Write a sequence for this structure.
């Protein structure tokens, strides 16, 4: 570090590169925002999309937005981020959806806080869901739950969030769950029962716009998991290229006298490299071809 500072001449002039005029013109430039939005597009991972709920039709009249992160703004930048511009206007997921499709009525209910133990907001959330054609749930962790010195022994969805997801899914409405976090989380009930799941991580200042783009099909999600998602903490460490024991299980059902669990499968909930898109691929006679699902209006 010191060598580089000498090479840059900072010991001769520590303020050499400080330029207030350049700073004002460089921050939040449209081209920088476009790049941030594109990076956010590419970061999202579509984990589930039963019955092709996604992409959403822009002809929907009412959409329910439920969850503690629906209106999140600065939280979208994650833990290791700075407020570089006091005037920075970060669109929330709700802001972005309303801007992209203003003819749809968006109904909001938080339902609970991120680390809440109270279910007092469940009734309002369920009532809101019942009024809508589709429900989008923005769930996950707080930004300061990930980062330096932020290890956790329990990586399940915090508080009563998964119970809120269960209550909303049981209404029978089509439900899209968006999960925001800086780590893999455990959400087994949601993985098994929610029709559509989009893992958004912390997408940055253009995250709201990027999520809306994916939800409405302006962008076809293509991200793949860079890490493995366990079914429970007891599986950790779990990774794709682990060294097998002398008695490896050959399937999730192969548990007798093998290196396997008797209470859950050996396999992860979501494996390294997993990720869906709105395109369906098939292989026939060793010749690949693909069919693309028509994006809805």
């Amino acid at each position: 570090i010191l060598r580089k500072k000498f090479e840059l001449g900072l010991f001769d002039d520590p303020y050499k590169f400080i330029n207030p005029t350049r700073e004002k013109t460089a921050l939040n430039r449209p081209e920088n925002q476009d790049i941030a939005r594109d990076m956010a597009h590419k970061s999202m991972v579509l984990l589930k999309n039963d019955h092709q709920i996604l992409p959403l039709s822009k002809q929907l009249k009412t959409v329910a937005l439920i969850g503690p992160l629906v209106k999140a703004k600065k939280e979208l930048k994650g833990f290791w981020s700075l407020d570089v511009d006091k005037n920075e206007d970060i669109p929330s997921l709700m802001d972005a959806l309303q801007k992209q499709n203003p003819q749809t009525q968006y109904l909001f209910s938080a339902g609970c806080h991120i680390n809440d133990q109270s279910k007092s907001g469940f009734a309002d959330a369920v009532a809101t869901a019942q009024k809508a054609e589709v429900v989008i749930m923005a769930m996950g962790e707080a930004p300061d739950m990930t980062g330096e010195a932020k290890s956790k022994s329990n990586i399940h969805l915090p508080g009563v969030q998964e119970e809120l997801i269960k209550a909303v899914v049981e209404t029978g409405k089509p439900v899209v769950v968006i999960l925001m976090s800086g780590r893999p989380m455990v959400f087994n009930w949601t993985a098994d029962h929610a029709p559509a799941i989009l893992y958004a991580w912390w997408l940055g200042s253009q995250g709201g716009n990027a999520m809306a783009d994916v939800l409405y099909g302006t962008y076809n999600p293509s991200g793949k998991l860079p890490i493995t998602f366990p079914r429970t903490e007891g599986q950790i460490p779990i990774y794709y290229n682990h060294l097998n024991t002398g008695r490896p299980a050959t399937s999730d059902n192969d548990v007798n006298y093998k290196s396997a669990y008797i209470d859950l499968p050996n396999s992860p909930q979501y494996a390294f490299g997993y990720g869906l898109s709105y395109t369906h691929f098939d292989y026939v006679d060793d010749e690949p071809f693909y069919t693309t699902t028509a994006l809805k209006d």
Summary: Residues 30-43 form the longest helix (14 residues).
